[in-house]
Each structure stands twice: as structure tokens, then as C-alpha cells.
Amino acid sequence: MRSMKYILKRILQMILTLFILVTILFFLFRVVPGDPVSMYIDSGLDKESQELLLKQYGLDKPLLEQYIIYIKSMLRGDFGNSFQYGKPAITVIGERFWNTLVLMITSLAISLCIGVFGGALLAWKRGTKIDTVGTILVLAVRCAPVFWTGMLFLSIFAFKLKLLPLGGMNTPGTNFVSLYDKFFSADFLKHLILPALTASLYSAATPLLVMRSSMLEVVKEDFIELVRAKGVKEKKILYKHAMRNALLPVITVFAVQAGFAIGGSVLIETVFRWPGMGREIVLAVSARDYPLAQTAFFLIGTMTALFNLIADVLYAYLDPRVVIN
Amino acid sequence: MEDAKQSLNNLFKILTRNKAGFIGLIIFTVFLIIAIFASFIAPYDPMAMNFDDNGAIKRLQPPSSSHLLGTTWMGRDVFSQMIMGSRIAMVVGILSAICVVFIGTNIGLIAGYYGGKVDNVIMRLVDIIYGIPFLPFALILVAVLGPGIKNIILAIVLITWRNSSRVIRSQVLTLKNRTFIEAARLTGASDFRILYKHIAPNVLPLSLVYVALSMASAIMTEASLSFLGFGDPTLSSWGKILYSCYSSQAMFKAWWWMLPPGIAITLLVLSGFLMSKAFEEVANPKLRER
């Protein structure tokens, strides 16, 4: 009961956050230097047609009224038309959304594995060369700019060794009959490897370090000594007893990491020319296609909020003290 | 003055006594010295195109004695760009870190100390800011307000104060019920005095953790924005070097152009991370054994 109330509260908070995000965006784009007429409407037009267009876009109304119209249409799922593509922004972003999601989920799954097993390994080998070298390596990966790591990988694996494609999501000219086909073809998977690897190495670093220190705590506890005294094999102690108890802080930090990963997709997708939301937002902002940028930002914000919500709920579930406070 | 000297001394001690902190401090100091003397070290104007004797642009020349790190596609000297770039990284890193932690610490102090409605309102605000995807927001803000180093710092500060304020607040919550605060209150000390004379010094190590971390993240953010093409158009920052390298499509041929900026960013971010570890051990002594 209490936890249901907590979750409900968090969902309401999430909706409020999104609402405020949308509001900030609306006003941010309205303070752009230069009026919308000069930006969106061809200056070669005569005065009358300019005003006609303004009316069509609803830009002649007062700001507050524009805002209300904007919120209303957004609730109906209408995010306006993209200037570049000439079709609804939500349609354009809708396609990109899946591309981003597939890349993100793949890399997050890989990074969770690397984080949990890598951290456990380093803790298990504490004080040895493996621990020292491993920790330094992880720190270096964590501190290197992710787009630069991507550039390095592209140079090595795509350009020098010619093992993998140089970017994009599929070889130009390929057509897919279905969505399944698109995401499960060998061609797609080949394109997925480098961006997924880069992103997962980057987001594995923090969970890995947390797992390592959490494991160091756990192995000091008495029950591990007890299990060892019973004659259980070291490997089994590691996997069955120690790791399981060290997971809690990793899960929470990982959910937060997932939220960051969405923001980071802007960089990964740009380096690998992956046609996702992150790259689209960069292109849209550069081309001053504000409806498209707004829509992409709104969806990225929604995803971040969802991940934060999952993180909090998960945390509350794993550590019930949170709810009471 | 004496106080300031004392705390600077303490700061130095914290960093030199801890192995990670010491390495971090050394890396940071080296970059700081390079940044201060950048205009004396850089042999060329970083934005100037260099020509050979026949008047042709020196395109993509590998490292040589006249160009220590070779040249770019436009014939610019990479070494000079790197040296001048350290200045931008330092300015962005230090300025943002100070602003971020100053705001975050004060907000955390006020929210934690006054509690009740004040705390509630501030913490909901922090929650909302946590919901903003940082990089996409910074990108839009910089694009809307115009690319430039000031707007980049503004975008960083507007968002990242959230991290320190939340942690400082919970530290204040545990501090404010301690006996020494109670004692100060009984002697008639004002709220302001209690907050800044008695509580603030105790959260200082924690603030320092965030100074180091914010510096690292600000440098990374500036590099990322510049890489995406939203950097200051008049300056050659490390991120912008990578941007021109990437967009010229020459990155596969010119390792001397691609490697140095990445290594420099990694080292400087690492130094912030290592120093934060040293401060963290002071703020949270339980960590010291690890």
C-alpha cells in the first residue's frame, strides 16, 4: 500500500517534470534572437503573404494563447511539422526513436554484464596486478570522451582492419520488408557492433567501480568466512554468495547511468552516423528546425524520466527504508 | 587571510597525502602551468594557415621539428592548437566548478538547515532539474543563445548544481541536530552565523569533492558541445580540434591530429576524478581502508 502510494507520487512528479520541460522549451525557442517571420518564412514574400502565413502558423496571437494552443495540441499528440522534412515531427522522430532504443538497450545490457562481472573479478583479485591494471583501464575509459573512443574504434576496426562498417545503420540501398528484418539482419548487426561496444564500455565504468567496492565490503563479512569454512569452492562463493549480495548499489547506480546514456546517445549517434533521436536533435538544432528539435527533446526527456522512475521504484523495492522516509 | 592560508594548506595536505589525489594534483598542475604560459609556449597562431616555400598549404603534415604534432587539413599547427586549447579547458573547468559548487552548496545548506516548506520547494526543483537530459538541453540552450564560451558555462551551471545541492543537503540534515550546533544556538548565534560559521566548514570536504567532479564534467561537456559543432567559433578548444578532425574525414590518415586532444581531455578529466577521490576520503572516512 505504502509503496503503491510512493510509485503514484513518483509518476505524478514525472508528469509535472515533463510539463515543466515542455514549458521551458516553448519559451526558450520564443526568445531566439530574430522574430519567427524572418526565420521560418521566406523574406522574399510580400507583406500580405507574410501576414497570411503568420496567421496560418498562429504566430499573430499573443504568446500566452500560443502556449495554450501548443500544450493542447501536444496532448493530442500533435507536435507540429518539421520544417526540413515537411511532415509531422512526431512521424520523423518516431522512426528514429526505435533506432535509438535498440542501440541503447543493447549497449546497456552489455554494460551491465561488463560492470557486474568485471567489478566482481577485480574485487576478487584485489591487490593483484589484475586489479591494478584493470582499475586504471576502467578509469581511463570512464574519463575518455566517448566520441573520441568512438573515433578510435572506427579508425582501428573499420578503417585499418576493415572488419566493420564505417558508420550508419545499414548499407545504403538495402530495403527491408519488415521491422523484424531491419533489426535482425546480419547487415544491421554488423553496423550495431561498434556503436554498441563504445557506448557500453563507457557506461560500464561507473557500475563496475561500484560493484568492485561493494564486493570488497561483502567479502569482509562473516557469512563469507562461514561459507568458506564449510568447504564451498571459491568460484561458487564468488558467484553464488558474494556477488548476489553486492548487487544492490550497482542496480541503483545503473539505473541512473541509463538515464545519462540517453543524453550520451547524442554523441554516440553523431560519431557513428546512427539515425537515432540523438543525432536528429543535433541536425535539427543546426538546421534551426525547432519543431523537430522540440519533439526529439521531449521524447528524450520522457525516456530519461521513465528511467529515473524505474530507478527509484527499483530502489524502493530493494531497500524499503526509502519509502518510509 | 590567515584562515584562507590555513585552508589552502589543508587542501594541499589532503591531496599530497593520498596517492590518487597526488597524481591528480600533478596532472592538474602541469595543465595549469601550460595554460598560464600558453601564449609563450605555442609556436604558431593556432588559427593561422601555414604555407610551405612554394606557397602551398601545408596539409596534413606528420609531426616534424617545425610542427611538433603535425598540421591539420587547413595547414594549422596542431601543437599550438593543443597548447591554446588547454586555456579554454582550464577556464571552463575552473569557472564552472566554482559557480556550480557555490550555488549547489548554498542551496543545500539552506534547504537542509531550514527544512519544512523551503526544503520541500527546493528539493522538488532539484527533482525537476534531474529530469532534464543534460547534453541535449545544453545543446539547445547554446544554439538558441548563440555559441560562445559564456553560454556553454551558463548551460553547465544551470543544470549541474543539482548534484552537489542534494548531497550537501543530506549532510546538513545530519549535522544540524548535533550538540555543537545546539550549543551555538543556545548562546544566541544567528541562523546565518550557525550556517556559515559552524555547519559550512563541516560540509567543505564534501563541497571539494564536487568542485573536482564538476571541473571534470564541465571540461567533458565543453568538449562534447564543441565536438557537436556548438563550440565557441573564435577559439580552438580540444573538442573543436576533434570536431574539425572528424568532419574533415581525415581522422583515419592523421593520427597526430586525432590522438592528442583525446588524450589531453582524458588526462585532465582523470585528474579531477582522482582529486575528488582524495577529498571523498576526508569527507567520508569509512572509505579510507579501501
Automatic annotation (TrEMBL), chain A:
CDD domains: TM_PBP2
Subcellular location: Cell membrane
Membrane topology annotation: Multi-pass membrane protein
Main subcellular location: membrane
BP GO terms, sorted: transmembrane transport
Keyword line: Cell membrane, Membrane, Transmembrane, Transmembrane helix, Transport
Alphabetical list of PROSITE patterns matching this protein: ABC_TM1 (PS50928)
Span of domain ABC transmembrane type-1: 97-311
GO cellular component: plasma membrane
Stretches that traverse the bilayer: 12-32, 101-124, 136-159, 192-210, 246-268, 296-318
Family: Belongs to the binding-protein-dependent transport system permease family.
Name this polypeptide is given: Peptide/nickel transport system permease protein
Organism: Paramaledivibacter caminithermalis (strain DSM 15212 / CIP 107654 / DViRD3)
From TrEMBL, chain B:
Main localisation: membrane
Subcellular location, record wording: Cell membrane
Gene3D superfamilies assigned: MetI-like
Transmembrane annotation, as ranges: 20-42, 88-114, 134-161, 203-230, 254-276
GO BP terms in the entry: transmembrane transport
Domain of life: Bacteria
Keyword Ligase on entry: no
Recorded GO CC terms: plasma membrane
Membrane topology (UniProt): Multi-pass membrane protein
Pfam families (alphabetical): BPD_transp_1 (PF00528), OppC_N (PF12911)
Alphabetized PROSITE patterns for the sequence: ABC_TM1
Keyword Transmembrane attached: yes
Domain ABC transmembrane type-1: 86-276
Keywords: Cell membrane, Membrane, Transmembrane, Transmembrane helix, Transport
Entry similarity comment: Belongs to the binding-protein-dependent transport system permease family.
Annotated protein name in UniProt: Peptide/nickel transport system permease protein
Organism annotation: Paramaledivibacter caminithermalis (strain DSM 15212 / CIP 107654 / DViRD3)
Taxonomic classification: Bacteria, Bacillati, Bacillota, Clostridia, Peptostreptococcales
